Amino acid sequence: MTDDKDVLRDVWFGRIPTCFTLYQDEITEREAEPYYLLLPRISYLTLVTDKVKKHFQKVMRQEEVSEIWFEYEGTPLKWHYPIGLLFDLHASNTALPWSITVHFKNFPEKDLLHCHSKDVIEAHFMACIKEADALKHKSQVINEMQKKDHKQLWMGLQNDKFEQFWAINRKLMEYPPEDNGFRYIPFRIYQATTERPFIQKLFRPIASGGQLHTLGDLIKDVCPSAINPEDGEQKTQVMIHGIEPMLETPIQWLSEHMSYPDNFLHISIIPRPTD
Amino acid sequence: VSCSMAGEEGFFLEEKRFKQYCEDFVKHSQQIGDGWEWRTSKDLGDGYLSKTHFQVRNRHIPPDLEEKNNDNTEPTLFAHVEEPLDDSQAAGGGSTEEVVRYEYHVLYSSSYQVPVLYFRACFLDGRPLTLDEIWRSVHASYQARLQEGPWDTITQQEHPILGQPFFVLHPCRTTEFISAVLAGSQEHHRHTNYIILWLSTVGPVVGLNLPLSYAKLAPEQSTNPDSA
After folding, report:
1. Fold for domain B15-56+97-215?
2. Boundaries of each Autophagy protein ATG5 UblB domain copy (chain A) (predicted)?
């Protein structure tokens, strides 16, 4: 259906206007101007910030520059989470542009994974895709693909090529005609308030009686405190790609249309703004 | 080239069984003072095995590198000194002993239905070991394996319960070799402790050894997981 395909494009081309500012304690030879960039929601910070790095390195001495890392209001940002997830989780109800602070020193070893090269991002991305397929298809589809197909998924993401990416990814979204969906849904639910970084469980898209499970069913099963009963006051928002899908949406449909390129549904549960 | 997945064959490890095997494992560990404990997470009730221990590392510093900074030295195996200290001293070099604190966690992966080994290491001053230092400290006989394939590789990942960076031994091929071992009479191996089997195989790659007495955990001594 045309409408469904539009969703795929809308997800892929989502952008977040961001302002990068150098941390004030970094040592510079002259003043560092902020750098503005539209960040792709579906990508990863260390994959799309080469220009940011170059911009700030221009005003710094070589010996003051070590591995780059990013922080928002004191929270180190995990580069291995998709950008859209980071924004939804930490800053979705704040004014744009998103203000991120750039650091080149004192890498927070206890909080962030290292990212010394693009290979690390690729390995992480592919590991997520493989795990998603383990859940959806017992790894059968991903294992049947050739190495060049795997490479095409990564190149599509890296070069922002929607068609190139989906030429291969569509195979990961198929299922046998006798089934009505995937074996299990690849998802992770994030809440900024917990020590646990995310919740991930086995969850079937189809109930034993054949009905389609909904987003609401998933939340109730995995994170029941997030959905209040019908006493009106919904204290939290269930957010994917910056929107709140209706809780009645079939989770199978969401998995096929609103997963990130890593084939996971990354869902944020955040406090509802009170104004 | 890709890793095969036990979708079709048996030898999945269900989460309930995982917990039961871990319980038996911890009981034996307590009997022999091996230091393992089970940690339960407060929010969801899932958990993991945990053990911390200290290892002494001998670092040989070749005389010509003595002036340079420590990153250039070649660390030797943990607790196994390949060359006698005397030789390096005779050649004009020195050696220092360093204590490394190792923390090992065994978690359950519901996606792959296998246990996964997470670990991290730091010096006593708190400085964590880099991935490079970890790789170099892997026993020589496993190094070739590590370089060969992505399946047995060690990468840095986020601990799914603690949210902190750990090193992880890739679980991809676990089911493959476990199946190979458990193939044959399923009856006979029905109560073999999967955790002991698995950990005794993957642990040594990253400096974790299980005392032989774990092998004596006979079926009649371990609880029948099916009755759990």
Report:
1. Yope Regulator; Chain: A, (3.30.1460)
2. 184-269
